[in-house]
Design goal:
It is built from 8 helices and 6 strands; from the N terminus they run H-H-E-H-E-H-H-E-H-E-H-E-E-H. The chain has 186 residues and is α/β, with parallel strands linked by helices. The chain is globular. The protein starts with a helix and ends in a 9-residue tail after the last helix.
Length: 186
């Protein structure tokens, strides 16, 4: 009996189930013993902006457009994966993508050191998560994420946190106009 048949109901197609993804990732991990996924995601050069609501997202998107950027990365604050969950972020992202369709918005959920939050985010369809737990778990989560076409981010060069910024638009404009910002949280 496979893992899929033990966990998922019969009416769900196994290719779309979490158990099928886990089973495939575990098989790949077993076949690739000794090889590791890259330590950082392919988008490690991203400089995300931590947003707390739609006004922050609007400011970030407006500043990106003013700078002539094709896209930007937004990220949830730490703890949102636990308190509000990925659905809140998906709704925020949907509103942003409707209002700023010309921008490619990379949406990163900060899942902290919690594997369960990462799995919940991936299962909800998010494609980018920030995980700062142990390396062994990160490797396993990386295999699972790869099966869903998602990315596990471990490090960022720098991050802009809009918490406490009086003028979010001005902060985002400054952020995009400079290659790095010393007061950013990493």
């Amino acid at each position: 009996m496979s893992l899929v048949s033990m966990i998922e109901p019969l009416q769900r197609h196994p290719l779309h189930s979490t158990a099928a993804i886990l089973e495939a990732a575990l098989k790949d991990m077993g076949a690739a013993k000794g090889s590791k996924l890259p330590e950082t995601s392919p988008m490690a050069a991203l400089r995300p902006i931590i947003v707390y609501g739609l006004s922050d997202v609007r400011a970030a998107c407006q500043a990106a457009l003013e700078q002539g950027m094709a896209g930007l990365a937004i990220m949830t604050p730490s703890g949102v994966a636990h308190s509000l969950g990925p659905q809140w972020f998906k709704h925020l992202l949907q509103a942003a993508r409707q209002a700023y369709a010309e921008l490619k918005i990379t949406a990163i959920m900060d899942c902290g050191p919690y594997e369960g939050h990462v799995m919940n985010a991936l299962n909800s369809g998010l494609k980018d998560v920030y995980y700062h737990g142990d390396d062994e778990s990160a490797e396993k989560l990386g295999w699972i994420a790869a099966k869903t076409g998602a990315n596990i981010h471990r490090k960022f060069k720098d991050i802009l946190d809009l918490k406490g910024e009086g003028d979010q638009l001005a902060a985002c404009r400054e952020w995009f106009s400079k290659p790095s910002r010393p007061r950013a949280r990493v």
